[in-house]
Each structure stands twice: as structure tokens, then as C-alpha cells.
Design brief:
CATH topology of the largest domain: TIM Barrel
Number of helices: 12
CATH architecture of the largest domain: Alpha-Beta Barrel
CATH superfamily of the largest domain: Glycosidases
Number of strands: 21
Shape: globular
Largest sheet: 8 strands, parallel
Distance between the termini: 50 Å
Structural class: alpha/beta
Strand content: 15-25%
Number of domains: 2
Strand order of the largest sheet: 7-4-3-2-1-12-11-8
Bound molecules: beta-L-fucopyranose
Helix content: 10-25%
Length: about 500
Amino acid sequence: MKQIYLWASALCLALTAPLTANAQLQLVNESVVNAENEPAPVHPVPAPRQLKWQRTEFYAFFHYGMNTYTGNEWGYGNEDENKFAPTAAPNPEQWLTAVKAAGMKGGIAVVKHHDGFCLWPTATTTHNVTSSSNAYAKATNIPRDFAAAAKKLGMKYGFYVSPWDRNNEHYGDDTYVKDVFLRQCAELAAYGTDQFEMWFDGANGGDGYYGGKGGKRNIDRSTYYDVPNLRDTVHKVCPDCVLWGVGGESRWIGNEEGWAGETNWSPEEYLYAPEKNGMYGNMDGWYWQPGESDAKMTTGGWFWHSGEGQLGAERLFQMYLETVGRNATLILNCPPDKSGSLPAATVERLKEMGKMLTERLQGTNYAKEATVTANETRSAGTGRNFNAENVCNGDSATYWATNDGVNKGTITFAWDEAKPIRYVVLQEHIQLGQRVKAFSIETSNDGTSWTKRGGNIATTTIGYKRIIPLNGSTSNSYEANPQKVKYLRVNILDSRACPTIENIELR
Ligand code: FUL
């Protein structure tokens, strides 16, 4: 009844008073729709699939294919299919089991690289596993086995299918995209509609075999691949599948060294971010295009090559802090060898990394043991509040916020006894947009004199997730760290609108 009255009075006002259309809408909005007093979003905001994708955080890349056997990084496209000769049955379940132990939540398997060789029995080309005389090759179907293994292990999965195809005679003309590339994507969708990402690499054009025609192809990747149609078609079948890179739904961080900018916005100005410019995003950008950082856990190329080693677990942990801990996702490459499995040394290193992540970031969360207060708190709605305690209740639907027009505020954690804290994990409620522009972390042992923490790390953006080592070092964040503190406060110093902080962990 009250609602009908409010709608009616809003309508009368709209008809009689000289209000702008926006002001009328706001009136209706405030009096009726927003009974919960939720803050208005700051656009752009993530699509639901992008939010689910971001929550995957840390996942694997598996570069395996013709190059594993030829020793190349980029095959020309003229490789004899018989060269694809696994010495045992390729085993995606072993790959995913190993990366799960490292704390990864999923993986992307390369099923076609630039050489055009397909790791499944596709109808689009004979340049595929079934044309090899090797018995293991003939039985290989990576997308089928990868998807099945992921489902079995409760992990997310997706595929890298290279838009650039150096084998195909039609690459560069107007039949390739509809008759080959889009069909390949459709074939892959048949292996599972719950894919979380398709990886569309930006490398394109240049020379290749091209069905024997050779020469170079020049294409414009922002128009050639018919991306709007591709996006629509894939989303109709795989609604949660984020189209990375050329697809425009997640951007390349661009350095391939496993770090994102300390300041890192998920909004981006360009639909196809210029290369080497993806580390930072752009606060005023219109596209929600969060960064993904692709990096290698081995010392050489993306594909397996004899004699290459693994990076140390401490270095891998640093990468994690500098990517997942800086509002990006980390896709870490783990290349299977000629047997179609991950080498034992890779499996060992992954285990070590998993142990580190668990010990360092999933142990006691001291925030849960603290008394939590805020100097500013948004007025509650009819059925919800925006209290400081929401940041450590483990519920991603609740958050701390201030009133509109108050773009800063402080949350303080206090304990009766000092706690050994190394890492502060912060998360914004990004459904309402990425907001925070500046923050700081301080600790105290008496609640009166405070020391700024985090060294010289730029405490600017937070986004989906930010992890600050209290000692300010990402390369030596554990051994040299624990700070014994009785009070810790997070000051939001500036925000594009009232801050909305969903989660704070103190580890
Ligand atoms: C690049 C490709 O050209 C590399 O071969 C590799 O697949 C890497 C992940 O993306 O752009």
C-alpha cells in the first residue's frame, strides 16, 4: 500500500513539478526501489560471468601440441602430422591434479596453437590428431579429456584456440572465420557448456604455410574475427565463458613476467587494449575488462623443451602476490612433455607452491578474532546493514560502506593480545564498480601512535583483491615479516564514490 502511494505521489510530482527526468527517476528510486539503501553502482561494472571468472583467481595454462615434438614455439603450419607422436596417452587428469595441489582452481588447455594443428578430431581440417600414424595420437582428444577431468576434480576449464592459423589455406580471406574458426569454437562448446574462458590470442597475420600458398597475411584483428557475433554465439551456448583477448572481456596484462601494476583498474579505455599497456587499466575507461597475467613456471618457452627447469616456489609465490594480489588473475603455464604428462619436477614444484599458499594465506585469519569498528558507517536499509563486521563475516553479499558523499573512512581491528600478521588482504564489492583510489594501512601497539605499513608499495587501487605484505616486500614477504600488532587500521583515503569493502583478511 505504502509503495503504491509512493509511486502515485512520484507520478504526480513528475507531472506537476518542474523536475528533470533524472531527478524524477531518482525520487522513485530512493523512495521505493532502494529500501535497502544500497549505494548506486559506479560504472562500468562486471557482467556476472566476469565476476565468476575473477573469482577463479589462479589457474593453469597447458601449452601442449605439435611444438612439444618439434621443439618450436611457433610452428609454421606445414608440420607433418606424424610428428605429433606421444610416447604415452596424454593425461589431462594428471595435469589438473598437479595444479590443483598448487592451489589453482582451473586450467586452460591449448587445443590449437598458431600452427593450426588441432588436438581433437575436428571436421574443420585434416591437420589434426587423427592424421598422425601414432596410436596414442589417434586416440587423443584433449578437449574431451580435459573437460571430463576438470569436472571430476571440481575445477574450471577452458580452451586456447588460436585465431591465427598458419596451416589453413583460407586464413586471411572471408571464409576462414565462418567456415573454420567459428566452427572450431562451436565444436569445442560441444565438450562442455560450462567453460569459464576461451583464450583468443592476439598474434596474427604474418607468414605461414597457408595450405601451400605461403606468403604473408595481413588482417585487422579488431574486425576480421567477427567478434561481436563470436561473443553472442559462444555466450548463447556457454553463458559463463569469458572471451579473453581478442574477445574483449578480459585484457592481457602484457608483460608475461607475472606482475600487474600496483595501481590496476579493471575498467579499460580500449576494447582491445594496446599491447604492453595492460598492466594498469584506466579509471575512466568504459569497458569492464579485468587483467589476466600469463606467466611461465618454467625457465624457457611456453611449450616443453628438453633441459628447461622450473622457477623456485618463492618466486612463484611472489608472482601470486603481484598478480592475484594486485587485482589481476594469474594463469601459470605448466607444459606437459612428450609423454603427454607433466614432468615429475613440475609436479613437485607445484606441490611446494600449494603448501606455501596454504600456510601463508589460508591459515589463521586474525580479522575474525578482532573487535572491528569503523568511524563511518552507512545508514542501514530495512533488511541489511553496512557495518564494519561485514568485512570478516565470509559472506560476499555483505560489505562495509559509508553514506553517499563520504568517500573515505577507517576500519580498525583491535585484539587483547598482539597478533603476528604478515599480509592484509582487501576486497571491494566490485558488483558496484571499482571505487577506491587511495588507502593506507597502519598498525599500533597502544591504539594511539600509529606506524604506516607496506613500505613503498603504492596503496592506490584495491579492486577485486589486493594483498599487501606488511613489510612492503613481495620477494621476502614471509620469513622477514610477522609484525606483532595489537591494532591495525585500514584507511580508505579517497574513492570514486562511497567505498564498499566486502572482505578483509589478516594473515
Ligand atoms: C602468445 C603466443 O604467441 C605464444 O606462443 C603463447 O601461446 C602465449 C601465451 O601467447 O601471444
